What does this fold into?
Amino acid sequence: MTQTTVQSLRDKPAVRWTALILVALTMFFGYMFVDVLSPLKTQLEETVKWDSTIFGTYGSSEFFINVFCGFLIFAGIILDKMGVRFTAILSGSLMLLGAIIKIYALSEYFNMGGIGFDLLNSASFPASAKLSCIGFALFGCGCEMGGVTVSRAIVKWFQGKEMALAMGIEMAIARLGVFAVFWTSPMISKHFAQKGEMFLSVQAPVIFVGILLAVGLILYIIYGFMDKALEKEQGAEEIEEEEPFKFSDLGKVFGSGMFWIVALLCVLYYSAIFPFQKYATEMLSSNIGLETETAAKIFSMFPLGAMFITPLLGAFLDYKGKGATMLIIGAVLMFACHATFAFFPFNEVSHMAAVTIAITAIVVLGISFSLVPAALWPSVPKIIDNKVLGSAYSAIFFIQNIGLMSVPIIIGRILDVTNPNVAPGEPKNYTTAMIVFAMFGVAAFFLGFVLKIADKKKGFGLELPNKTK
Ligand SMILES: NCCCC[C@H](NC(=O)[C@@H](N)CCCCN)C(=O)O
It folds into this structure.
């Protein structure tokens, strides 16, 4: 008698990769939205009077609710209790709501005294910035919740298969979003600035990405149907979540020493990446004397490089391992890039040499930004029980968000203090700010070592391949 084995949806490559593409595209749009105003820092200074401190506060506001209200911890609990489907749609809706508020905050109507303007306006902090912060904070709840949910979804579809490759591709698609926005945002802005539409020059790029976020929500809803089908199948097979989530499970996450090492490494490393992204365009224009559009294009090589290399390193990790070593090398490269921008005398070499060195440093940062994320996120299921994985990812994001929230404010303040007499739109001295970013690399390097030693002692297999079949 012949026995037929029924293939699970997870076992069908076309199905699991389609699921990945659906969730990753929404993150692509999300990452575009995160940095939609980053290449426009100088225009914001001129149009809506946001100085560096205001811009820094705006950059931090993405994480306000996640940190101050502990939203990310709730996000993890919601994910573990309600499942991927519900949480994905909730996160997509929050991102869209936040985007709509930010679009309104930058509109000419609002800035000319529209509804809510008088309530929010003050001399030290313009209403446009306050309302943008509110919108960005709501968006940030959705985006971070989405990030955790997507990680959980990938584990659900890919554990024991090409998990690191899948996570690598998901992050690569997100990086493509950052690359895309560093090109499209200045282009759209310039189009309206040339027509003399000053408010639209900062609002139109946000409207464009806001529309993409609406498409992202639809993709999450479509993913929901696939998730339901998988769960129905798992109902019979009981592949995961044998017991329901309990609050006491959170203790397992926070009680793990390995969790703390990974979480601290994560906050240190990412604090020198995402906040830097917000200032990189202006730093490049200031250090090298470039126009905003050219500086943004040079910086776009950073996510582009990361986009190509992250999946390759993910695949390397699946088949060869060496996760902890990758984290250490990534921290060293990050330090090298930031130290170059802090100490290299760009004004003493030819323009060509300055541009070449800047591009090289940005490419090095791109390689670093491939090594660390490719190794970090797939390491989490190796050190944390599957049942509390949603909470573990959220807890790591929560700790990381504290850094992502504080660092842009600190950098903005440093820039205003170290550039007291610099007029809006004029080049700034970025030395101190870049030294701060470089120091995060040093600290991440040491933690990488601690992680490698701890793994060697306790045998979590961080240096081992992921692929089991
Ligand atoms: N499924 C994605 C794993 C995490 C990717 C990681 N993102 C983060 O760490 C976010 N918490 C921070 C994103 C900041 C912008 N909103 C990444 O490498 O992108």
Residues 34, 143-144, 147, 150-151, 170-171, 174, 270, 274, 373, 377, 397, 400 surround L54SNA5H (CB under 6 Å).
